[in-house]
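From the pipeline queue, job 12 of 40. The input is one protein chain; the requested action is below.

Action: predict structure.
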Amino acid sequence: MNITEFKDLLFKKAEKEGFEEYETYSMKTDSFSVTIFKGEIEKYKKNIAVGVGFRCILNGKTGYAYTEDLSDEAADFIIKEASANSEIADPEETADVFEGCKSYPTVEGLYNPYLSDVSDGKKIETAKELEKAAYAYSEKIEQVTSCTVGSGETETLIANSKGLNLSQRVNLIYASINVTAADGGRKKTGSDIWAGNRLEKLDKEKLVKTACDNAITALTAKTVKGYTGKVIFKNEAFSDILETFLQNFFAELAQKGFSLLKDREGEKIAGDAVTIVDEPLLKYGYASTAFDSEGVASKNKTVVEKGVLKTLLYNLKSAKKAGVESTGNGFKTSYKGQVQTYPTNFYLKNGELPYPDLVKSLENGVIITSVSGLHAGANPVSGDFSLLSEGFLVENGKITRPADQITCAGNFYSLLKNITLLSDDLKFSVSGIGSPSLIADGITISGE
């Protein structure tokens, strides 16, 4: 039977068992990926998967179960498993089943029907073209360590005993390349990734150039003298830092004492130049959606406005605890998971300076183009970080040479307050976190 028929069967059995409230969260995914190595297919994956998560409330407590088997026997198992799990559940952890919103937005660009017409052969050909172009880019490209093209389509359905019945389809295609450059016994790596749902928007030349230039440029890099002061964080580098400290904007974690932003809504937490938004309705956004996993309608919201914290991100449970409305940020990572808080297209808004003018404004200092060690070198709660970094040295307003073997250190909360200038080059990571390049003061650079 299909997902809808299985949902109807579950609901009949749940009603018969006397469940007070119940809900299904179903996903069907169709994925493909191919990795090319030296002109041949190294890895090839193609998979269609269906799964249904079930949640019920029985005697004021919540029970969960899930299955990939859409049969009568599976439905009986789900009902029995959810009932048994509810008996040992903490009643304080029970979240109400949501009756739905009056209306739901239409989001442009979630699903491209023409993407399904792109053959697997075309995707394989694209991956081979990327690898070939990388080897041809420069004699310094010693090896293309991986070149992958993949695609995916996901259909999500949410239905519950209060009449909620929502569905949504999204699809995407992506390409990534990783290369190694070598010169005189020195080796460096470079990479880049593109994602969207319109293959015609893939700029293969740009993707290859970015990855190869990153590796080749790094070959001549050396460390710099340490200092504390202004640096430029390139858009990609700051997106990674912002993603590392995202949890501080989650209400459920603030309520548990895992964020220093607890009870600070309405306070100044950043510089005047800082405005951060979460926009699930962004056209062609990586994380755009019409509703969250709880069935709450999506809406764009300003999280930080000119330095003032306007709102944290709420799911239904944390919103009820705070006495506010959910911001539509209750998401599951899969049909198996439970609802947690996640952002959608979460980004620091653009400034007005072209990037070359931002470099001139720095005058003397370092541009941080990439950071590593984010898990080991950052404390998401305190905000402290010390990260291995690479980038460029700027002298008298001009980029003079690449730099590596450096560490940038600071505190995320202080960093937000010390952002002074923003470029106009907003860029998103494939996780939906975005930032323009920016100048921040008070950063400690350790080098020679």
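Job complete. The mean pLDDT is 94.
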